[in-house]
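HUMAN:
Could you generate one sequence with tokenized structure?
ASSISTANT:
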Amino acid sequence: MNRELNPCSHASPLRSRLLQLQSRFTWDLQQEDMDLDSLSTRLQEHIKLRLGRPGAVALSCSFLAYVRYLQGRPEEAVSLLNQSEEKTREYFGEESERRLIVVYGDLAWLNYHTGDYTQSHAYCQRVENILVKHPTSSSVLHPEVYGENAWTYLKFSWTYYTKAIECFHKALELQPDDSEWNAGLAIALYRTESRETSFDIEESPAIKQLRRALEINPDDGVLLSMLAIKIATYQRHQEAKDLVEKALMIDPDNPHVTRYVAKYLRNQGNLDDSIGLLEQALKRTSESAFIHHQLALCYKRKKTAEQRSKPFNNQRVKDLRRLCIRHMDKAVKIKPSFVLALADLALMYGEEKNFSRANELFQKALKMLPESDEGICQFFHLCYADFHYYHSKQETEAITHYTKGLLLPIVKWEQKQCAKRLKQIAEQRLLKDENDGGAHSLLGLVAKTQGEKKKAVEFYEKALDCDADNDEYLSALVNLRMALQ
């Protein structure tokens, strides 16, 4: 291997050139933010099945190349980047040069890390030649670079979704009618916009962007099915149904379309139809944690419905729980960082009285809890609290986790359930002892969180009547009175 350009230090001219490149090596991607094994499985599946938009396979090859580099397999990484270049040229033809800026940047960095400094220098030169041929102002990148940056952030970790949205916006400033950037922004907004947000339907950024992307490309089955899920939450059931039917007609064999349509059907209560579609999708993508999780949620809902029937069939409940556990277990094996599935699976084991396994899974999920994602944290605390309240019968631990879920500022169904359970615990305790200061303080906390400050004052006053020396109750009361002035 030719090493004649071997840099002597980090300040070498070659490294300085590399740091100027737009590349996954310069986009501040942190390995601890990624689940490499799960990402690898998904990307291999995308490449094998040729999933995604035209030209998406080339991107998947580039993504997988970076994963292989992080896994210590640089030769595979180089091979994948060469495939990405080949597929980019194959699809985009004469328009491919600007789409190769990031590929060549990655190849320059890879060769640098493997010690082939001559090749690294050569790829740096290729990038510079493209930039000379296709100049931009000093502060603006090519839209293709912003776009690839955005797709990278969107694919690699939920922690980068905000950055993905910013990059798609920058690409759209330069090419406002581009179908790819509009679709990417729609997907990013869909993933980040909560079902419980208080937008009117016409104000929802995700819905507006999905409609915009579909104006440009009305035959995108994935976007059609995403829009159906979103507008169904606003009770636009006929429009949602029409969108789903169109998505299935346009792209019936796309597992991404299938799984979103199945999610729509589950949300509408059509569990058997949803299960049928998901089982069909598994035949093509057997290693999809998402699909196994969706199947588990269907069986969980069927189990809950059976438990509510009077009288319910206990064996039927057990069978449905086992199906739920089987698919949840598969989901977390495919994607070990899947906190939502871990918490759900742990709760299922709690129902089976397998407390050691349940606690093991809850502790595993707790260590990976993404504190910046309040929705996931809230769901976790509700599950852990339910486990302690209904199964292990540790009320103090249940109160701790219901309280943590309640105090997270995001207003979701899970927060309402935490409030409901805390009120239930407090009222049951007051039936046994009307002078239970802790119970009155719980009711005060719930009232304060729900914006009922005057009612909260009354509860904390009762709590202090029961326990006059409690500094926590006094502090809460003083703060509430000041807020009411």
Notes: Residues 198 and 204 are 9 Å apart (CA to CA). The radius of gyration is 26 Å. The chain is about 70% helix and 0% strand.
